[in-house]
Amino acid sequence: MDIKKLVHKHIFDIKPYIPGKPVEEVQRELGLSDVLKLASNENLFGPSPKVVEAIRAAASDVNYYPDGGAYYLREKLAARFGVKFENVVVGNGTDELIRILCTATLGPEDEVVFADPSFVMYKISAMVSDATLVSVALRDDLTHDIPAMLDRVTDRTKLLFVCNPNNPTGTFNKKDDIRKLIDEVPDHVLVVFDEAYYEYADDPDYPQTLDYFKAGKDVVVLRTFSKIYGLAGLRIGYGFVSEEMGDVVHRVRNPFNVNQLAQTAAMAALDDQEHVRSAIEFCKKGRSQLYAEFDKMGLSYAPTQANFILVDVGRDSVEVFGELLKKGVIVRPGTHLGFPTRLRITMGSESDNEKLVRALKEVLGK
């Protein structure tokens, strides 16, 4: 069989997503026992102990299918955020919700607008639907260029993605930017706010887009349990959509798309807001620590509102990544993220960050 005749031609234009190296792989390859992973924006503070206990208690029932509609989780999310039950959707990670939105709305005649560099799944999901990609370069301050994005909207545009705070830069667009977008975007364009790092953002000028949703604006707000709640391994994200779009999501999503342990863990996580506050403080301390160390080393970095930092090491990031790997520190090289001389580094504990800094100083000769 000629696979190229079987599969749609545009699929071969997609570059597969390349995740960060797992700890186990680095241990096998390099024979290291002590490996620190700071590559994938994971929450190194970890999940709530209440979550771990809830998973243990639910583990004996995994022979049953999960709640296909995630009823109790959606009910809890609706109550917490003050929206209707019908406005809440959940997915196998926010990635699945992004894919569903693209699958349901985009085709070969449609366009999707997004910033570049930004979260790669907007591009990949739109390419699966064979839509036209309209990427708009970030501004010099590494935030979305909202006026330029609006200028690129046409009659064919269906979706416009805003990642705020942005991955991989950690930067954010302020209230005035988002207000301009909401005021000027044409009615036929659905604006999707991806707020995976929402809880980490502490700048008073960070916009509350859920208010626009509640006011009846045509927006989707996506968030996740992967980051602040520390449930990345369970793959569960959620979003706020109109009732009409919620109906569409349920038509397109797979049955039982969110497993029972993920639903159980998410509900337990929502009940432990003290743990969330502790995770935020963990991140703030890591942010201050790395800012101070990078300042001493003379390295420039993007001020971040997320749990990671994009730092310019002034050299080929892949080369520096390889040297750090030998020292048992995994980071994310910026080459494939659009930043050839930068590293994206997740904030760890004080000792984690100290190990990173020591290794980086040795590699850079600083």
List keywords for this structure.
366 residues; alpha/beta; seven-stranded mixed β-sheet; 14 helices; 13 strands
Structural topology:
Elements: H1 3-6, H2 23-30, E1 36-37, H3 49-58, H4 71-81, E2 88-91, H5 94-105, E3 111-116, H6 120-128, E4 132-137, H7 146-151, E5 157-163, H8 175-184, E6 190-194, H9 209-214, E7 219-224, E8 237-240, H10 243-252, H11 260-270, H12 273-297, E9 300-301, E10 308-312, H13 317-326, E11 329-330, E12 332-333, E13 342-346, H14 350-364
Parallel strand pairs: 1-11, 3-4, 3-5, 5-6, 6-7
Antiparallel strand pairs: 2-8, 7-8, 9-10, 10-13, 12-13
Helix pairs in contact: 3-11, 4-11, 5-6, 12-14
Quick overview:
This protein is an alpha/beta fold and 366 residues long.
This entry's quaternary arrangement is single chain
Q: How many strands?
A: 13
Span from first to last CA? 56 Å
Whole-number radius of gyration?
Answer: 21 Å
Portion in strands: 15-25%
Structure, explained:
The chain has 366 residues and is an alpha/beta fold. It is built from 14 helices and 13 strands. It has helices at residues 3-6, 23-30, 49-58, 71-81, 94-105, 120-128, 146-151, 175-184, 209-214, 243-252, 260-270, 273-297, 317-326, 350-364, and strands spanning 36-37, 88-91, 111-116, 132-137, 157-163, 190-194, 219-224, 237-240, 300-301, 308-312, 329-330, 332-333, 342-346. It has a seven-stranded mixed beta sheet, with helices on both faces. Helix 8 links the parallel strand 5 (157-163) and strand 6. The chain is globular. It starts with a helix and ends with a helix. The relative contact order is 0.16. The model has no long low-confidence stretch (mean pLDDT 96).
